[in-house]
Amino acid sequence: MSGVNCFGNAGPESHIAALLAGAFESIRAEMNARPLPGLRPSHYRVMSLVPGSGLRLSELAERAGITRAGTGQFMKYLEKLEYVTLSADPSDSRARIVRLTASGRAAVEHSLRVLADTERRWSAALGAERYQELRRSLYEVSLLAQRGRG
Which residue from 39, 67, 101, 126 could staple onto 43, CB 3.0 to 4.6 Å apart? Predict the structure, then answer.
């Protein structure tokens, strides 16, 4: 795909998906600059979806938008690294409950600090008003996506 992007340059980065990917790559780079052992940005995201009381793997898969099998693999990996525990659901022995360990909770807190630092840098670079407009716009787009699933 060719064309002129919003910066006046020709190339495939002119479409919104490429621009969003660039923004996400900036976040990924920040997370990778301050990693915890064995974790990738996707691990932090999925762990952040687990409430303090725990959650069935099937519910976590739905929240994360990934397959049950993929969620199971994620959680087995994170369990091996002692970021989560997996146990049988007392109400259904076929179901598994995932809970964050102290290390898992610390990893989520760490990722939230990195994200907050990134947001502060972006706000400083764009100016507070433009940054808040960016956040509002992205929020509205996320609501459109949610409505499409409902």
Answer: 39
